[in-house]
Specification:
Layout lengths: L1 H97 L4 E4 L12 E6 L4 E6 L5 H12 L8 E5 L3 E4 L12 E2 L5 E4 L2 E4 L6 E4 L12 E4 L12 E7 L1 H7 L16 E7 L11 E2 L2
Parallel strand pairs: 1-8
Antiparallel strand pairs: 2-3, 2-12, 3-11, 4-5, 5-10, 6-13, 7-8, 9-10, 9-11
Length: 291
Amino acid sequence: MKRILTLMLIVVLAFAMISCDSNTDNSVNAATNNQVNEATNEETNEETNEETNEATNEATNEAANEATTEETNETTKENTEATEETTEETETTEEADAQPEYEFVPIDVTQLDDANRPVVTITLSDDQEIVLKLVPEVAPNTINSFLTLANEGYYDGVIFHRIIKDFMIQGGDPEGTGAGGPGYTIKDEFYVIDELMVTYLSHTRGIISMAKTQAPNSAGSQFFITHGDSAFLDGAYSSFGYVVEGMDVVDALATVETDGNDRPVEDVVIKTISVELNGYELTAPETISVQ
């Protein structure tokens, strides 16, 4: 019996030892597992963090590079535009600096000599006369055209169809409407250049000049005589002579009754225009055909 009890005690003790060993092993295993898990987690976290940081850095760098590139492109564009503007301003300044400084001098008709200076006399139907001296120095082709037409009798019987007091009296249209002409036009002539001096005949009172449309080189046969100073016409209409006798006749014509179109109620008729060349060499005018 004792032997049986002893054996049973031995068995119980053995089981108790095994149980303790098992718990110890489980504790060891648990500790080991915890260490492994912690190490694994640390490595995983480090790898994850590294990958995340790398991705974030790459995205940040790309965004920063794109923003920097856009800013650089905009700055480059602005600099290019500024350079172009500066270049254009420089070119304009250089062109302006390259232009010579001309002195514009109006002709003093009281100082003109009579050498080779044509004289024309406009005789009206009532035999009143307007006498003018011409200035070939400024407008030779204009004068050649006007004198050629006058010598051909072109102006005989033509009226002054437009009169505006304190401005001018206008005639020379065979149709009497303001739309007629000789079938050609001539080039504009405004001044003569002698080195750096520009000489011109200003539209002061008593100047004869060519009428035309707003288009350049459109004068034909129509002319006007200024009743008042009209310098604003300078450089737009070809002046070519001045009244030396009969300004009182011009004054009288400027006050005739006119209608709403500035046409005299009673016709003011040119009987004839006579020419004295006084040594001036008249040549055929250079003309532009009217299509």
